[in-house]
Automatic annotation (TrEMBL):
<dbReference type="InterPro" id="IPR041732">
    <property type="entry name" value="RF3_GTP-bd"/>
</dbReference>
<dbReference type="Pfam" id="PF22042">
    <property type="entry name" value="EF-G_D2"/>
</dbReference>
<dbReference type="Pfam" id="PF16658">
    <property type="entry name" value="RF3_C"/>
</dbReference>
<dbReference type="GO" id="GO:0003924">
    <property type="term" value="F:GTPase activity"/>
</dbReference>
<dbReference type="GO" id="GO:0006449">
    <property type="term" value="P:regulation of translational termination"/>
</dbReference>
<dbReference type="GO" id="GO:0016149">
    <property type="term" value="F:translation release factor activity, codon specific"/>
</dbReference>
<dbReference type="InterPro" id="IPR000795">
    <property type="entry name" value="T_Tr_GTP-bd_dom"/>
</dbReference>
<keyword id="KW-0963">Cytoplasm</keyword>
<keyword id="KW-0342">GTP-binding</keyword>
<dbReference type="InterPro" id="IPR032090">
    <property type="entry name" value="RF3_C"/>
</dbReference>
<feature type="binding site">
    <location>
        <begin position="160"/>
        <end position="163"/>
    </location>
    <ligand>
        <name>GTP</name>
    </ligand>
</feature>
<comment type="similarity">
    <text>Belongs to the TRAFAC class translation factor GTPase superfamily. Classic translation factor GTPase family. PrfC subfamily.</text>
</comment>
<dbReference type="InterPro" id="IPR035647">
    <property type="entry name" value="EFG_III/V"/>
</dbReference>
<feature type="region of interest" description="Disordered">
    <location>
        <begin position="1"/>
        <end position="21"/>
    </location>
</feature>
<keyword id="KW-0547">Nucleotide-binding</keyword>
<dbReference type="Pfam" id="PF00009">
    <property type="entry name" value="GTP_EFTU"/>
</dbReference>
<dbReference type="InterPro" id="IPR009000">
    <property type="entry name" value="Transl_B-barrel_sf"/>
</dbReference>
Length: 547
């Protein structure tokens, strides 16, 4: 089943040895890979930290948070730093819980970095959505959820900050259902809120978990009282218990019962109420991930569907990040394993380049530090050192020509031309932009005629990030200026001659992106429409999938 091209003499039998199928299947079954999504400030960082704390991956809360620099952002620039703080440094975390291996992928909350988020969401099997219960559904939640829905990703919902005055829980569920168009199945139900927050009632277990303010040190046990009719409860807080009974009756009558199949199909979301900062409700989230969220699933690889427990290794790159850690100034390609067993030192085939590479230095992301990985299975994320030969969307295997699908690129909405103050730095500028383009930090277009590069972004903050990274990482002081370009489309066509004519005729507005794809840079919507009409044999795409 192997189609290895001429193994090098140093190749040892063990390095290509496969693990028995049953062992791989066992490893796959105990994996959970999920992304955490929220509108900024809903409590994503806090919850992430508590998940790590509960699983014993970190001892003290504050570890993740400390990285989220510039918390009290006062400028756009600080906002970027804040985004980078959390989403760069700790973008992938692996930890164990109840004999399960959990891979948590963070996503940037700021809309200007939504492209990055879309790509991350292609690498997960489920998502955890955090909502500020005082605010309800916010703008960024809607966008992120739309991406999950495109892929039918199962979603677990955490309503956070019940220790504050929140909106009415029934109203919150209503909003979720109507705005996000997803069925809600409450699993826990809050008893009071704010100063009168007493705890939550577990609708499936008929148990009440009493609230107590939590601390930052360790996981803690909350007292559990069995049965909503338990006289102890009425004695403790008679008012809230009466209210709870009424609400529970309403909830049972009016809302959906949790249904595992519907959750796995992405139609229904189980909803939990709690307070991340107080550790309250965090254990229930971990249980939902372990008990309900799916193990890695089969993936479309164009020529066929690849099952996670197949023996040969395969995977794809969904993100490239430079300079993750100032102590290691390198670039890392994040690869999601889709099948088989990855072993350090093994040879894998880089399918786009048709070249075999030996992967001897790989990192995994254990909670907060980077460690060498010895083996990895479907669902795991491994970091490969990238010396410029890997791009987002690249597939890897033990030889079979696979191409995993689904990594989207969106036509940019904002454009800048770029110029440098010191012409001697032109090489550094090109190198920097090429690398940032491959990372997906910005889209870089090189017009067929005319020397000036054009940058495209989905959000304008991306330009700030690029300017600052060019300066700090490549020593290039670049000037970004407005351009006449207002939209871009990728162009494809079957007839090579037509494509060549197109390039020759419209050279100043025809460009290649960092991955070598042909694009048309339009000066207005009218211009775009006219061009499309004049070149009927060409197809103009607003999105492209890595291919
Ligand atoms: P984010 O990653 O989604 O942007 O949110 P983050 O966890 O940073 O939380 C945003 C703010 O909400 C923080 O307060 C955090 O302490 C607070 N928070 C998180 N969970 C809860 C909760 O359960 N209850 C309450 N009352 N607050 C919560 P901050 O003042 O912005 O930051 P800090 O001063 O606490 O660091």
């Amino acid at each position: 089943d192997l189609d290895m091209t001429s193994p090098a003499p140093s190749d040892t039998p063990e390095s290509t040895g496969h693990k028995p199928a049953a062992a791989i299947a066992r490893e796959v079954a105990r994996r959970r890979t999920f992304g955490i999504i929220s509108h900024p400030d809903a409590g994503k960082t806090t919850l992430t930290e508590k998940l790590l704390l509960f699983s014993g991956a970190i001892q003290l809360a504050g570890t993740v948070k400390a990285r989220k620099s510039g918390r009290h952002a006062t400028s756009d620039w600080m906002e970027i730093e804040k985004q980078r703080g959390i989403s760069v440094a700790s973008s992938v975390m692996q930890f164990e819980h109840r004999d399960h291996v959990i891979n948590l992928l963070d996503t940037p909350g700021h809309q200007d970095f939504s492209e990055d988020t879309y790509r991350v969401l292609t690498a997960v099997d489920s998502a955890l959505m955090v909502i500020d219960a005082a605010k309800g559904v916010e703008a960024q939640t809607i966008k992120l959820l739309a991406v999950c829905r495109m892929r039918d990703t199962p979603i677990v919902t955490f309503m956070n900050k019940l220790d504050r005055e929140c909106r009415d829980p029934l109203e919150l569920l209503d909003e979720l259902e109507s705005v996000l168009k997803i069925e809600c199945a409450p699993v826990t139900w809050p008893i009071g809120m704010g100063k009168n927050f007493r705890g939550v009632y577990h609708l499936l277990r008929d148990e009440i978990m009493l609230f107590k303010a939590g601390d930052e040190k360790a996981e803690q046990a909350f007292e559990v009282v069995k049965g909503i009719d338990n006289p102890r409860l009425s004695a403790m807080f008679p008012l809230e218990i009466e209210q709870l009974k009424m609400e529970v009756e309403l909830v049972h009558g009016a809302s959906h019962r949790f249904d595992l199949e519907r959750f796995l199909a992405g139609i229904q979301t189980p909803v939990f109420f709690g307070s991340a900062i107080n550790n309250f409700g965090v254990r229930e989230i971990l249980s939902a991930l372990v008990d309900w969220a799916p193990a890695p699933r089969a993936r479309d690889a164009t020529v066929r569907v690849v099952a996670p427990a197949e023996q040969p290794f395969s995977g794809f790159v969904f993100k490239i990040q430079a300079n993750m850690d100032p102590a290691h100034r390198d670039r890392i390609a994040f690869l999601r394993v889709c099948s088989g067993r990855f072993e350090r030192g093994m040879k894998v085939k880089h399918l786009r380049l048709g070249r075999e590479i030996k992967v001897s230095s790989v990192v995994t992301f254990m909670a907060s530090s980077r460690e060498q990985v010895e083996e990895a299975f479907a669902g795991d994320i491994i970091g490969l050192p990238n010396h410029g030969n890997m791009q987002i969307g690249d597939s890897f295997s033990e030889g079979e020509m696979l191409q995993f699908t689904g990594i989207p690129y969106f036509a940019p909405d904002f454009f800048r031309s770029v110029r440098i103050r010191n012409p001697l730095k032109i090489k550094q500028l090109h190198k920097g932009l090429q690398q940032l383009g491959e990372e997906g930090a910005v889209q870089v277009f090189k017009p067929v005629q005319g020397g000036e590069l054009v940058l495209g972004a989905v959000g304008v903050l991306q330009f700030e990030v690029v300017a600052s990274r060019l300066l700090n990482e490549y020593g290039v002081d670049a000037v970004f200026e407005g351009t006449s370009i207002s939209s871009a489309r990728w162009v494809s066509g079957d007839d090579k001659r037509v494509l060549a004519d197109f390039e020759a005729a419209l050279g100043h507005n025809v460009a290649y992106d960092a991955a070598g794809n042909l694009a048309y840079l339009a000066t207005s919507n009218v211009n775009l429409r006219l061009t499309e009409e004049r070149w009927p044999k060409l197809v103009f795409h607003a999105t492209r999938e890595h291919a």
